[in-house]
Design goal:
By secondary structure, the chain is an alpha/beta fold. The chain has three domains: 101 residues, no CATH class; 196 residues, 3-Layer(aba) Sandwich (Dna Topoisomerase Vi A Subunit, Chain: A, domain 2); 278 residues, Rossmann fold, CATH 3.40.50.300. It is 28% helix and 24% strand. It has 19 helices and 30 strands. Strand 21 and strand 22 form a beta hairpin. Helix 5 crosses helix 9 and helix 9 crosses helix 10. The protein starts with a helix and ends in a 13-residue tail after the last helix. Bound molecules: zinc ion (ZN).
């Protein structure tokens, strides 16, 4: 029976509020009270002495109450927003001077929402009351919170429902219908707002639940500062936006009291970020007993029905401060700090290249950018660097170098570097038409080299994509399975930049940021080879700012190396002339414990792709000459063996046949 008299009766029953006096109303249904009608009894002030939350008598009901109650400060009023709420009669109002500010902060009806009809709502009937009682909730509590009974078509069938009214001021903004078997429906085209939103008015703290039944469970215990998100864990946070200033700003504590499942966890995290973690507390529906045992329930309502009111209150009282995401305290680093205090910073790894080692040492979790003119052998330099770090420090490596094609020839080059001579079975020299063949790399050595490469060097391919995300993902998998320590990306421009409207410069910056974060997170040492931008006429490449595409290369790199051909540099007498000279500009070392800016020279042997130490000799202030030291042609894998055998045999390279 839907009659208007029945609807009126529901309102008169307290389902909707009708004031005793005549007041003007705001569009959202707050009654406007002239400021001179306030009778403030108590006030709380902030550090500047400004009143924040005050208690006053109710402009609507106090003078009609029993004489003994007429002076009772039954209203909590937030002086910042001007919103007040009477806890005796339920009068919601705003003081006249704050109306403008409210409408400024709370754009109303921007989206042309409808208001739902309410004339079909009925007082809680027997079925509803039975359901509520089984959930530990008395009908009075539900009634006070605006819960009604209704029939509603859900899924094509008319169903008996609990109807939760979403109210703001005096208006019913939306209604959620819930069947006893937990089917839901909301009113179409009506605004979705948090349930019981006005419970925030005049409060210092609020409890947010993941559903209305949980909110009712807390109200059952006497909490009057409870709201619920509108749509469980899937609730969109923009449903809070309109109330941010008017209802949430002045709250000091927000209890996040959602469900104890993964979705609930995600909602808590979302809400904490939205409101600011500092004022949020996490309620866990778990009780730790004195005997060390603990028991947990899914939500507030389950805790209430299973363990009673005290258990629920205990959970609220033990709410813990929310962790603040994205920050850390020194406590996280205590152990590592005392390690530094006692032992100093772990020295970085050296490569074995003389003056180069003096300038720069490498450590895990860092990124290095290598820039060089075309034909300076950037890739060969990078490969040699990777191999040295792998051999000397057991830093297994992943290499992404699509330009080095086909892969077997690239691997043969790496094998050549390790062997110290061409990775060939025989070396052939031709003299006067006669071939002189000599064994270059005997079978056992070849196998040892290939075995070592198989175990220590891995290759990242372009299969299934070459976005930075895909490439780094593969490197991380190699780290987890094989324990790689370094990653070479050569060259940068083979990495596919992300889609989107940003400029290439910005996209490059994003990719570099991702590489940097990846290095920090995984502890991998990442080397990136970058082509230079086209130099202006006569311009020399001397800084990582010459890297093509973005200044971010220099900004983001932990180490920046620039390679320049310097074959014409002045060599000391007796320096081997067949070796090339390479100027290495160490343009950046972010951490001064790992080296410093400077320039050094390296030699390069085109026969085996090895680099070697060069000693700088200062002739005058202006003039240097370079002493190129010979580059060994011994197989590296024999190095340790060689050192052990040094006392026993004059020539440990006994795999040479003569
Ligand atoms: Zn009142």
């Amino acid at each position: 029976m839907k009659t208007s008299s029945k609807a009126y009766k529901i309102m008169a029953d307290g389902y909707n509020f009708i004031p005793q006096k005549k007041w003007e109303q705001t569009p959202t249904g707050y009654y406007i009270v002239p400021i001179d009608q306030l009778d403030i009894k108590r006030s709380r002030t902030d550090e500047n002495g400004t009143a924040t939350i005050v208690r006053c008598t109710c402009p609507d009901c106090s003078d009609s109450r029993k004489r003994s109650h007429q002076n009772e400060p039954c209203v909590r009023l937030d002086m910042t927003t001007g919103l007040g709420k009477c806890y005796n009669c339920g009068f919601h109002f705003i003081i006249s001077t704050k109306v403008k500010a409210l409408s400024r902060h709370q754009p109303v009806r921007k989206e042309n929402w409808k208001l739902p009809r309410t004339d079909h709502l009925k007082p809680l009937d027997a079925v509803a009351i039975d359901y509520l009682m089984k959930r530990g909730i008395r009908p009075e509590t539900a009634k006070k919170a605006g819960v009604c009974s209704a029939h509603r078509v859900i899924g094509g069938t008319e169903r008996h429902c609990l109807a939760f009214t979403f109210r703001e001021g005096t208006k019913v903004v939306n209604i959620q219908y819930k069947t006893t078997d937990k089917l839901f429906a909301m009113e179409p085209d009506c605004e979705i707002i948090p349930w019981n939103i006005d419970a925030c008015i005049g409060q210092e703290s609020i409890i947010i639940t993941e559903g209305m039944m949980d909110a009712l469970a807390l109200m059952e215990l006497g909490y009057d500062n409870v709201i619920s998100v509108s749509n469980g864990a899937d609730t969109e946070l923009r449903t809070f936006n309109r109330f941010r200033y008017s209802h949430f700003d002045s709250l000091k504590t927000i209890y996040l009291a959602g469900d104890m499942d993964e979705a609930g966890e995600q909602l808590r995290t979302k809400l904490a970020e939205y409101f600011g973690e500092a004022r949020c507390r996490t309620v866990e529906w778990r009780i730790e007993q004195e005997d060390g045992e603990s028991f947990a329930e899914k939500d507030a309502n389950d805790m209430l029905t299973a363990h009673g009111a005290d258990a629920v209150m205990q959970c609220i009282n033990h709410a813990q401060p929310c962790p603040i995401t994205g920050v850390e305290t020194v406590a996280n680093y205590r152990e590592k700090l005392f390690d530094i205090w006692q032992n100093g910073i772990q020295p970085g790894k050296k490569v074995g290249w003389g003056e180069f080692d003096d300038l720069v040492q490498f450590e895990p979790g860092r990124s290095t950018i290598i820039v060089g003119e075309p034909n300076t052998g950037k890739s060969t330099f990078a490969d040699d660097l990777v191999l040295n770090l792998a051999l000397l420090h057991n830093w297994k490596a992943a290499i992404y170098s699509p330009e080095m094609f086909p892969p077997e020839r690239h691997i043969a080059r790496l094998a050549t570097t390790i062997a110290g001579r061409q990775f060939r079975k025989e070396k052939v020299t031709t003299q006067r038409g006669v071939d002189y063949r000599q064994t270059a790399i005997p079978q056992p050595m070849a196998e040892r080299i290939v075995d070592w490469l198989e175990e220590n060097i891995f290759f990242v391919t372009e299969e299934k994509g070459r976005t930075i995300h895909m490439l780094l993902h593969r490197a991380e998998q190699l780290q987890q399975r094989y324990g790689i320590q370094q990653l070479l990306l050569d060259p940068f421009n083979y990495i596919q930049l992300p889609d989107g409207a940003k400029s290439d410069t910005m996209k490059i910056g994003d990719v570099l940021a991702e590489i940097e974060l990846f290095a920090h997170r995984t502890g991998l040492f990442v080397i990136v080879v970058v082509h230079p931008s086209k130099p202006q006429k006569g311009e020399q490449i001397e800084s990582i700012y010459n890297a093509s595409g973005s200044a971010e290369f220099r900004n983001r790199a932990d180490y920046g190396l620039v390679l320049v051909n310097d074959d014409n540099a002045n060599r000391s007498q007796g320096s081997p002339s067949q070796l090339h000279l390479l100027k290495v500009i160490v343009d950046k070392v972010r951490d001064d414990a790992m080296g410093h800016k400077g320039i050094c020279h390296l030699s390069f042997d085109a026969e085996n792709y090895r680099h070697g130490a060069v000693r700088t000799e200062h002739l005058t202030d202006q003039l240097n000459q370079y002493r190129v030291l010979p580059i060994s042609a011994h197989c590296w894998l024999d190095r340790s063996e060689q050192q052990q055998l040094a006392f026993e045999a004059p020539d440990p390279e006994d795999d040479m046949p003569f």
